[in-house]
Amino acid sequence: MKSLSIVLGFVVSCVLTTGSTLISPLPGQRRCLDMSNAAGKQVLLRCTSTKNIIFSINAMCYTTSSISDTNNRKRSIYSTNAISRISSNISINDSTRGISDIGKCGSQCSGQQLEVLTSSHNCYWKLECNITWSKSPILKSPSKNCLMKVPSYLDVKYQCVRKKRVFFLSKIAGHGPIRRAYKESDYGMIVSHVQYPWVYEAGQSNILTLSPRTSRRRRTRISRNRTRRRRKRMRANKVLVTVDVLDVGQNDAVVVSSGNSTESLVKGSSIVLENTHTFSVRFMVSSEPSSRHGFVLCFYWARGCENTSGEDACKIVRSSKRRRRIRRC
Predict the structure, then answer these.
(1) What is the pLDDT of residue 70?
(2) What is 172-326's CATH topology?
């Protein structure tokens, strides 16, 4: 059984959809779907552009009752050996312990359902896909009183990113103990393996080297028969790298290097590599099996005049408005 993991956050806003027709949520939009009579139905996730792919899916199941309603009913997730094996491989972010009370999807009794988790994991890196709903119980929850309860509502949110801006280390071709690849891109995401967020394989070592695109002169049309060349844009000479997700084994490591500078990444960190035109990301995996899920990094190449202090490369990658604002210098 593959292990499951999903990044969950606080519920900020939620729109309740009722009736037999389930409205497909748009990227970046959080939806609270009434699934009480929707066994076997599917929720469609789709990017608005064919150039994009799905990532960062947050899905949480909710019951119709709160934790206080089930205090006198003790339930155990270890009722069968099969369920106990499944639950041991599912992890929930501690931030879900602070769910706010905002209606049906603000209920304190929440958790994760196996079918929702498996289908949402399989949705990653696709243009569109379906999340399947069933009447199966909650197998993992911050509260033991919510275990084995059948949920009635599904809170879901996802995002899309440009396909050409995503680079997978596991897709690097080659032979031998270390495989290398070289790419050009001004910004993007680096993912540990193409099967993310499923667990990664042991015994691999991949290196991806990135550099900004070569600057080109731009032409501006001023009449039908005349053109004027703009001045050549200054080439980027520093790169901002932000850790979005980092879940690697104790004997594994993710290292970013540029020239003589080497940085070992930690969860939630951002680093700036100055005075460089290339940087490399190396993912070193030991031969020991691990039930870890890998990492997601974001990078953004900046010119010397651009202020990247306190910036998050992942927010820059996902927002064209933020990129335009930073580039005004």
Answers:
(1) 47
(2) Jelly Rolls (2.60.120)
